[in-house]
Amino acid sequence: MMKFKPNQTRTYDGEGFKRRAACLCFRNEKEDEVTQQQRPHRFLSLWKVILVSSSRHPDQWIVPGGGMEPEEEPYGAAVREVYEEAGVKGQLGRLLGIFEHNQDSKHRTYVYTLIVTEILEDWEDSVNIGRKRKWFKVDEAIRVLQRHRPVHAEYLRRLTNTCNPDCSSMCGPPNGNTPSSQVTDNNTPHYVVCSTQGSDLVNR
Prior knowledge:
Distance between the termini: 36 Å
Strand content: 25-35%
Largest sheet: 9 strands, mixed
Number of helices: 6
Number of strands: 9
Helix content: 25-40%
Radius of gyration: 16 Å
Oligomer: single chain
Low-confidence stretches: 32-41, 168-184, 195-202
């Protein structure tokens, strides 16, 4: 079933790319069992990430996210999208990067991390279009996404190569007043999908 919002307006940047935002939403299975410094690989294995079923292809899993509304900031769009699509709320982390796709449809997606603190039993997309959600181990999620959404899999690869979800640089604001998500595009890693190989990204 196609997702439809009667008042939704697509927004584009100055270069004609559709503006999107998404969140990698995590929860820790055993929060106090081990620290990152003690055993890094074991630490990462304790985290699970939520994926949701695609509205166009319900048998495929994707990272929750969608288009920004007019006058909406990327971090606000990311929080709204995961609330609508996955039914979760939490602590917004850092902006992982901006992922650019320039093949069939041109879009730029601002990808954030979020530590889940609240899970709704029923949520907007589950009621309206029957969207499902499921928790995956990080390595399992990468394998699942690689089959149909390789760019989404790359979100998680970039994350695992830089920092675990609850690192201070991932979730904590740089100071007491400024949300960590409000960083400038110039300071954010920018990844471009290669035109010939959709699953390959290059840092711009």
